[in-house]
Design goal:
Strand content: 15-25%
Distance between the termini: 62 Å
Structural class: alpha/beta
Oligomer: single chain
Shape: globular
Length: 322
């Protein structure tokens, strides 16, 4: 049988300094990449020449692009970033298992559809606290709920708590008809939708009646401590700094916390700082906390969603430059 054809591909970076950071202290990150993916990498200034089979070169290119994205968002790289990216581009974790979530008793698995989603799922599996920031349609909430269901199915947690701030997006809550529960329900509906898409409706109803699953407004979390639970805060950009601190400190023994949000859709008054923005900045150097940034490339809804997001981003960029 003939040997696989070896190819060479050049990757152009922003600068030589970027290459130094990507390679890591004493080229530690580069050695890890080369050994894991089976490629040869030669650096010439701001150009990387990658040699290997077409498959391994493709994986290496994806890995470098993902690491560059992390570097731009976080301003640094750590060994854990490199390991996570390698696992994603190889389609499995270090032990060779797939990066997927078991979400049903019948063995249904949910797999990430983009590299960014793969890093997100890997972070969920390896960290107790995960903050995920990204535009609409990137699967932030859906994957978090799927992760919570997976933990519940495997008895790693005993309870799922899904939380949202009841912040008004252009409409006044007081003018909505009905009692308090009826007024709040529209804010929580997206969480119900995700749950019902992943689990049988009757199962969701049964779990809610037995208090295994709770869906409630953020204000209702005050004073609680939750043990052995997966706690998800959706639309975290609409929590204030005080509310975010309150939410994150609800975490008890054996619990996991996930916060998702989109910083382009903050509905707080302009004078109020977003708790998610504050947390991303404040918690970025704490071990055990993973902060993920998804972008337009991770949008998995109708392809028009990506174009709509890009159109609004373009307008925002033009306004800020004027």
């Amino acid at each position: 049988m003939s040997e696989p054809l070896t190819i060479s591909r050049n990757l152009t970076l922003d600068s030589r300094e970027e290459a130094v950071i990507l390679f890591g202290p004493r080229d530690q990150f580069l050695r890890t990449l080369k050994d894991a993916l089976g490629v040869r990498v030669i650096a010439r200034g701001d150009v990387l020449q990658v040699e290997g089979t077409e498959e391994t070169v493709d994986m290496a290119e994806r890995a470098f692009q993902q690491l560059r994205t992390i570097l731009r968002k976080n301003g640094r790289l750590v060994a854990e970033d490199v390991r996570s990216v390698i696992e994603v581009v190889r389609g499995g974790d270090i032990r060779g298992g797939p990066i997927s979530l078991a979400v049903s008793e019948g063995g249904k698995y949910l797999r990430p559809r983009t590299d960014g989603q793969g890093r997100y799922v890997q972070a969920l599996k390896t960290h107790d606290v995960v903050l995920c920031v990204g535009p609409a349609g990137t699967g932030k909430t859906y994957l978090a709920v799927a992760w919570a269901v997976s933990l519940l199915r495997s008895a790693q947690v005993k309870k799922i708590v899904l939380v949202r701030p009841a912040v008004e997006a252009g409409e006044r809550l007081g003018f909505l008809p009905g009692d308090l529960i009826a007024k709040i329900n529209p804010y929580l509906r997206p969480l119900f939708d995700s749950l019902n898409d992943i689990m049988e409706t009757e199962t969701v109803k049964r779990y809610m009646e037995s208090d295994i699953i709770e869906i409630l407004p953020l204000a209702y979390m005050r004073g609680r401590t939750l043990n052995n639970a997966c706690i998800i805060l959706d639309e975290g950009q609409n929590a204030t700094v005080t509310q975010m601190k309150m939410f994150l400190t609800r975490m008890g023994h054996g619990s996991k916390i996930v916060v998702t949000g989109d910083m382009t859709q903050v509905d707080l008054p302009s004078s109020v700082r977003s708790g998610l923005s504050d947390a991303v900045n404040r918690l970025k150097n704490i071990n055990g906390i993973s902060i993920l940034h998804l972008d337009d490339a991770d949008i998995v809804r109708n392809p028009l969603v990506a174009k709509i997001v890009a159109a609004y981003d373009d307008e925002k960029t033009k306004k800020s430059s004027n």
